[in-house]
Amino acid sequence: MKKVGMVSLGCPKNTVDSERVLGDLVASGYDLTPDEEDAEIIIVNTCGFIESAKKESVEAILEMARKKIDGNCKQLIVTGCLAERHTQELLDEIPEIDHLLGVGQYPQLKNILEDDATNFNNRNHVATPAEFYESYTDRLMTTAFYTAYLKISEGCSNRCAFCIIPKMRGPMRSRSPESILAETENLAKRGVKEFNIISQDTTMYGFDLGMKDGLVRLLEGIAKVKSVEWIRLLYCYPTFLNSDVIDYIASEEKVCRYIDVPLQHTHDEILKSMKRQETEGIIRRMLDELRLKIPEIALRTTFITGFPGETEEHFKHMLNFLCEVQFNHVGIFTYSDEEGTTAFDYPNRVPEEVKEERKNILMECQKEIACRKNQEKVGQIESILVEGFNVQENYIMTGRLASQAPDIDGQVILEKCEAEPGEIIPMRITAVAGYDLIAEPLSQPIELVE
After folding, report:
1. Do 155 and 282 fall within a single domain?
2. Are residues 388 and 353 both part of a single domain?
3. 169 and 155 in contact (C-beta within 8 Å)?
4. Which side of the chain, N or C, has fewer Cβ within a 10 Å radius?
């Protein structure tokens, strides 16, 4: 059977899509290869969220197209958000693409490959009826064996002025609880201990299914699965992060004391212009409740600088908010002008250099906060998920706290550690290295003599 290679770009939601596609192809008899030079079929699963992501995706497609000349590639398949968003441009500009699929055609890929000989001239599959995987148990993981992303819904029903996702991926569609729990049990049997819950809007899970307290009910089911140790919530829309969810996080020890709540801004005028549903008052009450009920909670958020109409006053308001609230982790992005969004037609553009300057100011403030919070952990004993040796970091051994999500937050450098990857063990934090921590295992406990 033909060998398949894949380049997967973008967010963790894209990672799950890629893993599901690979699992489907393997189940159909295809062989996988990590060597792009050896692959007869190359799939590029693209991201099209912002300009930098689009550029990265195009560069990856062009690089893989060259494998038709200097590699073994016979078919180049392009899928994902960029294919959905810029279908005709990709087909016109990159003739090496054999098949183009959007975000609603992933399950069709194996049939397209099988029928390729009889439908050679049909390159554009984006307009075909959308089809989504019902089951994720055939997923082929590309992450470490002990950690996985668990995608609980597709699409988004919010209408934020800066975001193209609803137009690319459609309205929010929750997966059935039965499907998610079956996937959780399957992954747990394979050794997964850490489950990172993702979607475009995690807190709205189950609304479209008519479920009351859908996210809480789902988390209750996941927590009952044997071998699940850490459950982490990502992409929680602040408007729907209600008391029931907060109370459940506080009560269930398997749910990490960590929550990702993308705020994007804090000034009411900009929030309204962004078409966000919350106000600063709502945000503050939500954060206050989280910290009151879960004092040890680690909070992550994201902000956008340079949104059209953002004045120096609006920016300073956000800066003061950041310095006051003291988040554990923060991502800062400059506004990206995306055709098809509401904000694309807004006046009062902020110059690029001003966007970058404001981003840098926020990052400097957050760096001081993060270092200070890390310093407070020195001497504490924390449970750490051992990840193993990091080849890119001179083979140092690393791990993560429950308060550190994979790929986006800091890590823990492990000294004198002989534990195996995937183990979660108590260690003592001994020092700080910027955004990272340094820890070592506890000494053997002294046995008490009766």
Report:
1. yes
2. no
3. yes
4. C
Is pLDDT of 446 > 50? no
Q: In terms of domains, do 28 and 102 share one?
A: yes
* 220 closest CA partner among 206, 208, 209, 201: 206
Q: Specify whether 333 is located in the same domain as 200.
A: yes
List the structure tokens of 316.
């300073």
In this structure, the answer to whether residues 261 and 407 fall within a common structural domain is no
Please state the rounded mean pLDDT for residues 408-432: 93
- Over range 277-284, report the average pLDDT: 95
Instruction: Give the containing element (helix H, strand E) for 59.
Output: helix 51-65
The C-alpha atoms of residue 419 and residue 266 are separated, in whole angstroms, by: 43
User: Do 228 and 328 fall into the same domain?
Assistant: yes
Q: Which helix (H) or strand (E) holds 114?
A: helix 109-114
Q: Do 287 and 404 sit in the same domain of this protein?
A: no
Please give the model's pTM, rounded to 2 decimal places: 0.93
CATH code of the domain covering residue 432: 2.40.50.140
The domain in which residue 23 lies consists of 3-114
The kind and range of the H/E element at 357 are: helix 352-377
Indicate the DSSP class of residue 208.
G
Contacts 24+ apart (CB under 8 A), 82-85: 82/46, 82/47, 82/48, 82/53, 82/54, 82/57, 82/58, 83/46, 83/48, 83/126, 84/48, 84/126, 84/168, 84/169, 85/48, 85/164, 85/167, 85/168, 85/340
pLDDT, one tens digit per residue, over 14-55 is 999 999 999 999 999 999 998 888 999 999 999 988 888 899
pLDDT tens digits, 210-232: 998 999 999 999 999 999 999 99
pLDDT at 447 over 50: no
CA atoms of 397 and 394, how far apart (whole Å): 9
Q: Following DSSP, what letter does each residue of 263-300 receive, concatenated?
A: -B---HHHHHHTT-S--HHHHHHHHHHHHHH-TT-EEE
Alpha carbons 328 and 84: distance in angstroms, whole number: 35
Is residue 318 in some structural domain? yes
Residue 135 belongs to some domain of the structure? no
Q: Are 229 and 204 in contact (CB under 8 A)?
A: no
Q: How much of the chain, in percent, has pLDDT values that exceed 70? A: 96
Q: How far is the C-alpha of 96 from the C-alpha of 412, rounded, in Å? A: 44
**For the chain, what is the domain count?**
3
Beta-carbon contacts of 251 under 8 Å, excluding residues fewer than 6 positions away, are: none
